[in-house]
Amino acid sequence: MLDKWHPLPGTNASFLLTSERHVFEGCIAACAALAEGANATLACIDSAEKAAFVGEGLLEPNDRLTLRMAWFGLFQHPHKPGSPRAGWQPTAEGCGSDFHNWADGRRAVAPVAATCTTGWFAGGDNFCGSLHLHEMGEWHAGPCSVLPMPCVCEQPATLSPRFAAEFAESAAQAAAIDRAYLGIYLGVCAGVTLALVGAYAGWIWRQQRQHLRQTVGEGLQRAKTLQHAKAAQRRLRTRVQGLLLVLGLVLVLCGVAPVAFYWFGVWPEALARSHLYYACIFIPGIFLCLQVLRPTDGIAIRVVSLILSVLWLGFSLFSLTEALRGVSHLTDTGALLVRAYSGSVWALFFIGAAFLLRIGCPYRRLGALEPRRALRWLHNVVRIVDFGWVAVSPSLIVFWYLIGSTLVPYVLFFAVILLCALADTPRCRAAVLARLAELGSTAEEREAAVLAGLCTSGKYTFAELLPMAEGKFRVLPFERLRREDMLGSAATTSLAERTVRAELGGCDAFLSHSWHDAAAPKWEALCRWARGFEASQGRPPTIWLDKACIDQNNIAESLPCLPIFLSGCKELLVVAGATYTSRLWCVMELFTFLKMGASLDRITIV
């Protein structure tokens, strides 16, 4: 029965197992507070009889513990092997040191910092002693201040003055080492941050120096206008994506280091649970790095997908190992919770890694995705895995609650994952990028960047685009246009055959209209304009009509040329029906025509 003294037959010693959980140092105070008429401290286990009695006789069938481990009075001072003060020592005065009951492979030596013995921790700086209930009291070793566990107390027993002095000394020594580790970590993070921020600032400065202080408008040649637009797009992208990348890398590097150190057993014991706090900045770092990717970054999307898939495969194998490894230190409930969580995480990340490998596949014969679709898949896979991870987190949180550990870092960690998953939507991404684009940029730069995006679409350089547009530029003589051609946007072969090749600048009007407007009023307005043009110029006009002048067999290749086609027309003829101002493409035609250097008096509205 818990919290009740049990006498050991044939001796004056009594033993008690606490229901409350403490770290090793807390157990010393708890045992002293539970003493009944005599001094009490952590149990001295110096014989096989005591080990069997404590290991098998303190729990009754109705006692419920999540851990089958409990602290007892054994301590290892942090000195180098061979030192007179090295090795395991009892905490109780007068306790023998010849008997030991170590489980296979569980004895540990701590040459640098303080030590106690616990159940299933194989590393750390400070070690103390714990024993396995129901396993004949086998001993294990682990960090003293990491995991709260029940305490095995003994009375009458007095705390050893030597232990008290050495424990206080080792605690101070461990604290100094922890401060040194933390100082090194913070110094490295500060250095990395300054280096990345310096590189980003230098990048921005160099681009500003290269910027020709021109404005897009009249007086600039067509090629110069496009070059200026591309330069503005490059500067804006550097500001926005460079800032996101710097912030993301800083958070990733400074957040992943403590987690990696903890997994490899070199993170300071006093900060043992704090690695989850650092993981809370690692997750947003990954989120920010993903926001850097644009639909035109085909190679970068594949590389990021492959890197994430490798990391996820490694994490899934780690989780599988956790699910399959021995959990004899836990009760059936604790083991079930750990295995349920680890197994679910393994399946989740393994399946996610398989999808990421599919996204990162570069071979067309194996079904490589085009960049825009691949980026959409990447964000969706990351979101689904994040939501799944949060969904299985209650089993882990309940486990840590049952063993008495603080829940704050775990709840905070999964809350951050949930927030990042909720924020990783197209609408949120667009809003964030738009706000960042406004920082340090002018409206003219943002407009020029839009123009550059319309032109290149990530597929062509301006050196390739201009001659390609010149070769594709066609016009439609108005006398060849028929009333039925204005009935719908569907192109016909006969209409395309009525167009003729023309030089850029040789088209009288770019026809801007909405196909959702009624055809009859548009046709009448066009005819009135054409008659007026012929009366003043002595010839019928030529027009640029989208379904006639764009190659319908290769629309994707022709669309990037649209800004150049607009600049190759002498005026913009706007047939403004009821739906014209509600059509985004119509607004883009107006915007592009003006940004390519045209003046307002070259726009005719009928």
Topology:
Elements: E1 6-7, E2 14-17, H1 24-34, E3 41-42, H2 48-57, E4 69-76, E5 88-90, E6 127-132, E7 138-143, E8 152-155, H3 161-210, H4 222-263, H5 275-292, H6 298-324, H7 332-360, H8 371-402, H9 408-423, H10 426-437, H11 443-456, H12 462-472, E9 474-477, H13 493-497, E10 500-501, E11 507-513, H14 519-537, E12 542-544, H15 546-549, H16 555-558, H17 562-567, E13 569-575, H18 584-595, E14 603-605
Parallel strand pairs: 11-12, 11-13, 13-14
Antiparallel strand pairs: 1-2, 2-8, 3-8, 4-5, 4-6, 6-7, 9-10, 9-12
Helix pairs in contact: 3-4, 4-5, 4-11, 5-9, 6-7, 6-8, 7-8, 8-9
Q: What this model shows, in words?
A:
This protein is an alpha+beta fold and 606 residues long. Helix content is 53%, strand content 10%. Strands 10-9-12-11-13-14 form a six-stranded mixed β-sheet. Strands 1-2-8-3 form a four-stranded antiparallel β-sheet, with helices on one face. A four-stranded antiparallel β-sheet has the order 5-4-6-7, with no helix packed on it. Strand 13, helix 18 (584-595) and strand 14 (603-605) form a beta-alpha-beta unit.
What is the terminal separation in angstroms? 95 Å
Shape: elongated
Structural Rg = 37 Å
Any low-confidence stretches, pLDDT <50, length ≥5?
108-125, 212-220
Please provide the count of β strands. Answer: 14
Strand-residue fraction?
5-15%
Sheet with most strands: 6 strands, mixed
Helix count, DSSP H or I runs of 4 or more residues? 18
| Alpha-beta classification | alpha+beta
Strand order of the main beta sheet, please?
Answer: 10-9-12-11-13-14
Please identify the oligomeric state.
Answer: single chain
Helix percent band: 40-55%
- Average per-residue pLDDT, rounded, comes to 79
